[in-house]
Structures are given as structure tokens and as C-alpha cells.
Amino acid sequence: FLHCILPPPSHHVRKRQFVGGARTRVLFSNHTAHKLQVKERGRASRAARQGQRIGHGMHKFEDVIVETTGPVAEIRINRPDRLNALRMTITDREIIRALDLLAADDAVRAIILTGAGERAFCTGWDMEEIEDTPLDRLEALVRSNLELFFTIWHQRQPVIAALNGYAVGTGSGMALACDLAVAAEHARLGE
User: What are the residue ranges in the chain where pLDDT is below 50?
Assistant: First the structure.
């Protein structure tokens, strides 16, 4: 996640702990700490250049709803008619973009990832979207989909999966990438 060259033992070492102790990052020397802060500000300015802001209220995406209430943000996959199945290159990109925007918002202290409706958290890929995709293109999509898991895993704030139904395939992978998963009694996980 953060690659640093270890300084000589004489350098000052500071630790910064994230909310809830989910992850701890070690910053070495003021110069290195400054470089890391610049990197984090770079993510925020990239989001600002794209003309998007995360604040309070609802934000418009095609397949995802993002809401912030106080220090808690919620990312909801909004395709209940398809059991919240992901449209490749659309839904997963929107989740990644929402996570990047939320990472730049210092007011957000935790993120809840869930699905719309009560039947499913996420049932993986929408098979109607990929049924005629050539095998080589499908392999490239699978490899690029790993970015979704890594973005969740490396998120600055703790990400909580609220499993409100089926979590299958990519849905179960997203739940496992989160810092914490809370499941309803009727929730089911599968590969």
C-alpha cells in the first residue's frame, strides 16, 4: 500500500492509527511524512479535477447510490431487480470512484457497503452483460476487477459490509475485502 525505504534508526518515527484500529501506518521522518500527505492530497485533487465532491446527501451514479450522514458514508449497489449484480466496467468502476472520493473526505470516518433491497448484497457479475464476451476480453475484465477488491482492502476508512441477502461470486469477494462484515439472518455467502 505505502512503500517506504526504511531510514536509519536515528530518524524520528511516528505512528498513525486509523479509526477502530483497522490499520496502522508508520510514517518515517518529516520529509517522508510530507511526501505521503502529498500523495493523499493528490487523490483528493484528482477527484476535484473530475468535478465530483462527496459531501452530505445523495450523489448520482448510474448503478450506485452514495450517501453520507455525519461521519458515516453508505455505498449502496442499486440494481435490486438484478439482485445487485455488477455490470462489468460500470458498477465496479463506480464503486471504486466512490471509494476514492470518500477517501479524500476527512469528515467520513467509516463506510458501509451494501446492496439495495432485502434479497441480495451482490450476486457477482450480471451474466447477461458478459454472455457474448470473447474469452480473452473476459480474462482482461477479471484481472481489472481485482482493482475493486484492492481498493476496498486499502481504503483509508474502515469499510463495513452490510450483507442483506445473497453475496455470491464477486459479492462474496467484496465482503471478504471489507474490514468487517455484518450479516442479516437470511444472508447467504457463496463462491
Answer: 1-53, 55-58
Pairing mode, strands 72-77 and 159-163:
unpaired
Beta bridge partners of 15: 26
Yes or no: say if 30 and 36 are a contact pair by the CB < 8 Å rule: no
- Which pLDDT score is estimated for 24? 31
Q: Which three cell numbers stand for residue 71?
A: 461521519
Q: Checking DSSP bridges between strand 159-163 and strand 180-183, what pairing results, if any?
A: parallel
What residue ranges in the chain does DSSP mark as E strands? Answer: 13-17, 24-28, 57-60, 64-69, 72-77, 110-115, 120-122, 159-163, 166-168, 180-183, 188-190
Please check whether residue 95 is in contact with residue 64, taking contact to mean a CB–CB distance below 8 angstroms. yes
In this prediction the pTM is 0.68
Encode 82-105: b = buried (16+ Cβ within 10 Å), e = exposed: bbbbbbbeebbbbbebbbbbbbbb
Provide the pLDDT for residue 138. 83
Q: In this predicted structure, what is the pLDDT of residue 150? A: 94
Where residue 164 falls (left for φ over 0; alpha for ψ -120 to 50; beta otherwise) is alpha
Rounded to whole angstroms, the Cα distance separating 95 from 99 reads: 6
Sort strands 110-115 and 72-77 into parallel, antiparallel or unpaired. Answer: parallel
- pLDDT score at 59: 57
